[in-house]
Amino acid sequence: MASATWTTDTLSNNGGLAERTLARLLRTRQVSLASASRRIERGLPYRLFTELCGRLRLTQAELARLLRISESTLYRRRAAGRFESTESDRLWRYLVLYARAVEVHEEPAAAVEWLHAPASALAGAKPLDVARDGPGLQRALGILGRIEQGVFG
User: Fold this and answer.
1) Which of 110, 125, 142, 150 has the fewest Cβ atoms surrounding its Cβ within 10 A?
2) Which region among 4-8, 15-19, 77-81, 146-150 has the lowest average model confidence (pLDDT)?
3) Tally of CA atoms within 13 A in the half-sphere of 7 that contains its CB
């Protein structure tokens, strides 16, 4: 049985750009749910962290804080070249959020601006800040879905 390709079908109706963004970040042709799970279990490479910092316009310390990783742990992960599975799972949330924001806003710069801006639908919190856990990520993705559908209230 072939593994399902990761799409944003559960997040949006048009897929495509988010999947391509994730594939570029992961340096692969296709992102499947099974391969994403395997990558997370093995540990995502440290270079993904640094690349995402650049794309999100965050310092390494800022992204580490969002991922709940201490400075000393971050130093060890840099030396090892990859994150542990639980840290990779948290990093994956931000990869998905970034990819989905790029898809909805159609431009990386607009996506990053939205991710850094306080949102009234999040009680004034920034999408980057609420995505620190699974439910928070779902809230931010839900807002992106509403924006995509033209529902801004």
Assistant:
1) 150
2) 4-8
3) 10
pTM for the whole structure:
0.85
Mean pLDDT taken over the chain: 88
CB 19 within 8 A of CB 27: no
DSSP 8-state assignment for residue 58:
-
Cα distances (Å, whole numbers) of residue 30 to 26, 97, 139? 9, 18, 26
Please provide the size of the chain in residues.
Answer: 153
- What is the C-alpha separation between 35 and 151, in angstroms, rounded? 33
pLDDT digits 0-9 by tens, 138-147: 999 999 999 9
Q: pLDDT at residue 129 above 50?
A: yes
Task: Take residue 77 and report the two structure tokens written for it.
Answer: 């992960």
